[in-house]
Amino acid sequence: MQADNASTTLPSTPHSATLLIHCQDRQGLVSRITDFIARNNGNIIYLDQHVDAQKQVFFMRVEWELESFAIPAADIADQFRQELAEPLAMHWQLHFSDETPRMAVFVSKLPHCLFDILARCQSGEWNIDVPLIVSNHPDLKPIADRFGIDYYVLPITPNNKQEQEAEQRALLARYNIDFVVLARYMQILSPEFIDHYPERIINIHHSFLPAFPGAKPYHSAYARGVKIIGATSHYVTSELDAGPIIAQDVVHVSHRDSVEDLVRKGRDLEKLVLARAIWNHTQRKILSYDNRTVIFD
Amino acid sequence: MQADNASTTLPSTPHSATLLIHCQDRQGLVSRITDFIARNNGNIIYLDQHVDAQKQVFFMRVEWELESFAIPAADIADQFRQELAEPLAMHWQLHFSDETPRMAVFVSKLPHCLFDILARCQSGEWNIDVPLIVSNHPDLKPIADRFGIDYYVLPITPNNKQEQEAEQRALLARYNIDFVVLARYMQILSPEFIDHYPERIINIHHSFLPAFPGAKPYHSAYARGVKIIGATSHYVTSELDAGPIIAQDVVHVSHRDSVEDLVRKGRDLEKLVLARAIWNHTQRKILSYDNRTVIFD
Amino acid sequence: MQADNASTTLPSTPHSATLLIHCQDRQGLVSRITDFIARNNGNIIYLDQHVDAQKQVFFMRVEWELESFAIPAADIADQFRQELAEPLAMHWQLHFSDETPRMAVFVSKLPHCLFDILARCQSGEWNIDVPLIVSNHPDLKPIADRFGIDYYVLPITPNNKQEQEAEQRALLARYNIDFVVLARYMQILSPEFIDHYPERIINIHHSFLPAFPGAKPYHSAYARGVKIIGATSHYVTSELDAGPIIAQDVVHVSHRDSVEDLVRKGRDLEKLVLARAIWNHTQRKILSYDNRTVIFD
Amino acid sequence: MQADNASTTLPSTPHSATLLIHCQDRQGLVSRITDFIARNNGNIIYLDQHVDAQKQVFFMRVEWELESFAIPAADIADQFRQELAEPLAMHWQLHFSDETPRMAVFVSKLPHCLFDILARCQSGEWNIDVPLIVSNHPDLKPIADRFGIDYYVLPITPNNKQEQEAEQRALLARYNIDFVVLARYMQILSPEFIDHYPERIINIHHSFLPAFPGAKPYHSAYARGVKIIGATSHYVTSELDAGPIIAQDVVHVSHRDSVEDLVRKGRDLEKLVLARAIWNHTQRKILSYDNRTVIFD
């Protein structure tokens, strides 16, 4: 029915196309979708599906080679909509392998996640453009300069939040940004801001959610005496630290670890977990439904 | 073409059927298989497929409900063979959800894996029958007695191996055993024995294979000063500790750990890893190809 | 100053003695304690110390061989008290290596932790006596019978809790129990009960605390869409699921896992984490302070 | 007896001193060493010891505050040598907390470990100077330039190895380098080179050693069908990939992972494991003995 965020720029000769679909479960869905591809001479190189048996929802990710595909890339969306998506009331996205997503990074003062992201992009590990960094502090500008990326300082106070967020949104539009990563950005975005980018804002929270939401989770973890700490990456929703979880990981700690040790060990976790979330997002491996994620691997 | 080990006892009203398939990859396989099920009114509750792009091999596991399926359970194998398996030269297995696999356990003197297996079966965690335990030592007979399971002592010497293995095979036949688990059985089975049970003998090796194959891996791990030890469960082939790996896991160790500590920590790993392998095997989640396994999860 | 729970039964020829000490930090503590042992010809085989720099508390575990120790085992406690513990206002415990702790297990209907505990004791992996199992249900009596252990059914209702707990405490006294393990015991003990066994009741909670305390944590974890589930073993205090944490571990899960899968995967975690806590407790490796634990390893 | 690599530049007012000691085990060692510190008014802030019971070797790390220590920093080494090290035939190192180690990084073409190291140094996470990068390829010079670090290209051929290593050693001397990190440096150093820097060259190997030593471990891991891959950091000795292991970690993989996926997942492991090794080395937490390491934590 609705193409949630189908790509609008069409590739000349993309290598492959990926469909992400969810809809009410019914018999024959896989058969009809794979038949659509096979009939048009597409060679499936990835297929995974999942059924939420409790809620009777069907999820699918299918990727196929376009080389000898009978439908031109520019027409696939239309034809899929008519033949399958509308008749079967599907939510769907269509992506092409040669798209390069454009990511903005929001930071405050901590550099580790930003450094890790930029190193991955710059070394070619990720095929992602990062044209824009936004911060409420000037501290990390030297890093942006080092990588040649525009850096805007927009300090947030209780009084100027609305205007600054308007400015942020203008920047996101001007730089043609596809999605935003909060790389230890220490400000809470307003619901209005968040509503404009559904499932397009990824946060890293430095705890094993739902344990220790909010501020100073390492201090809380220390005080509680946990033997494991974690990090959680999730899509941002208007409820703080409560959006759909994309990735989590943990590391063992002991009584020898001070709060500073937890912060140090946690940094590595944060980098890793955020990187996995960004990878899965840009590889079109995530479907979000009912505040949970399906991560196709 | 060939039903590797299709079940011969047919259920009256099984809940679901599972097909495990592998064959040369070609366009339209998923479409044709799912169409076979959908056309006959089967509701797919699990589908996963994998393509080994390098070797051009297609793997699939599909499970569907039989309640309103148009083909009687007893006829599914024949019809699938004629319509799809033979024309497409598939290797395939068909299983029904109400089968209870019959497992024999081979042990020597160490009780931890045996205890764990029997506890899982006896508490109903697993739907597996264990009618037979075979050992080269009498030590664990009290445990078998405690659980009311027949226990045979067949000591192996360099001279009697052939006869004792003949006796073991006679027992496996008499007890109608589907597969064998070597739960820290300290004897090497002959190639003849192994050939009779392809992908039906599961071993637990107490190292992170291919590191430390053969005898005394914990001593070797200690001597090498590794910081992590592991356990590996695999199908037994005629090459020692070199069969297709089903499951592996590890635990961190330190300089404080003596060989005895490694043995102690390793015991828990061995239990867990062997249990995962048995679970996956009896849930029909494993396809083995070219000495590697596909584990559908 | 106070010997928290120094052993009263004195061994004839124990192999080693262990001191667990905590007190206000000050210069020279390690030197004075190790000098006490060295001067009396004791050979230290384990020494670890920890200083909580924030709270200025000193923790130490030291174990030494008694073979040629100048002070008879029966007099060590007195002499240590006079020379060091009283002058330095220490909290301390003295243990001997030949003590066999006596453990009671409380269960409800789930067998996996009980089976695991009994298998470890029966196979000689642990040197622990389990003379007593208490339950609010008769379901697991067959397991107790199988292992030849007395099993008492004391059903708890809102009206009879006080009497039943009195009966439980009478049993613990009669069986000369050192510590209690709640192996998925589904009742909340009263503060009066708990106060009688400080740091002597070990619980296993089936979540990664402080996430998901209380009832049905696997259901909550599923609803929240976490990518990792955990288990936590802790000393029981009067605040529910909030006592000092002894051990935690986790396992990765995915959208494919139903609540039933979480329960299944969690069972293995619960067994492992509870077993580690019991091991550390009986090896005298735990010091608890300010609702946190120091685990000497 | 011998101060293996006691620091020669003496600090004016270092915060703390650290002794790393190993020697034959005997009674009273801890007592004598801690008495030396306590008697001179030093406040111990870290003490850990370990005895290799099998080989009768004693290991210790002790750190104490120098603020009111009776012996001037410049005289501690002499006095410790006379009072304890010589009489007790100790191997020992003395370090001061205000030393900043100087590290050279050797690379080939892969940037991920180099980027990670430089980000940690530049952001102040590590207190390490990196004045020198050496490579057999020019590829990573732009990264060195970006961080303002001297980068030397010394291509290695079968014929020029001896001269190039002479040049490398001249550079290490000229830049006053304390230790070398091989951050995916694809050349094998000669025994002569290695002998000059005992326990001062740290390598990252992209497998779980001793599995898959040598070239192309990810390809070997894929071919063997392992379910877990690893990375290993170790001190370099003249035997390839066989030196004392400092740190290891692993990540789960599946049949879905191609060799390229293993390479991708392995990169994150390599970064983490190498970073942990560097951290432990520069925090003076490692003692190496008999091709094993003691890592004080």
UniProtKB/TrEMBL annotation, chains A, B, C, D:
CDD domains hit by this protein: ACT_F4HF-DF, FMT_core_Formyl-FH4-Hydrolase_C
NCBIfam families: PRK06027.1 (NF004684), PurU (TIGR00655)
Active site (catalytic residues): D241
The keyword Transmembrane appears for this protein: no
One of the record's GO molecular function terms: formyltetrahydrofolate deformylase activity
PANTHER family for the chain: FORMYLTETRAHYDROFOLATE DEFORMYLASE, FORMYLTETRAHYDROFOLATE DEFORMYLASE 2, MITOCHONDRIAL
Pathway: Purine metabolism; IMP biosynthesis via de novo pathway; formate from 10-formyl-5,6,7,8-tetrahydrofolate: step 1/1
EC number, UniProt record: 3.5.1.10
Pfam families: ACT, Formyl_trans_N
Protein name: Formyltetrahydrofolate deformylase
Record domain ACT: where: 18-99
Family: Belongs to the PurU family.
Species of provenance: Alkalilimnicola ehrlichii
Keywords assigned: Hydrolase, One-carbon metabolism, Purine biosynthesis
Ranges annotated as spanning the membrane: none
Enzyme's top EC category: hydrolase
Catalytic reaction list: (6R)-10-formyltetrahydrofolate + H2O = (6S)-5,6,7,8-tetrahydrofolate + formate + H(+)
Biological role stated in the UniProt entry: Catalyzes the hydrolysis of 10-formyltetrahydrofolate (formyl-FH4) to formate and tetrahydrofolate (FH4).
GO biological process terms held by the UniProt record: 'de novo' IMP biosynthetic process; one-carbon metabolic process
Database matches in InterPro entries: ACT-like_dom_sf, ACT_dom, Formyl-FH4-Hydrolase_C, Formyl_transf_N, Formyl_transf_N_sf, PurU, PurU_ACT
PROSITE patterns: ACT (PS51671)
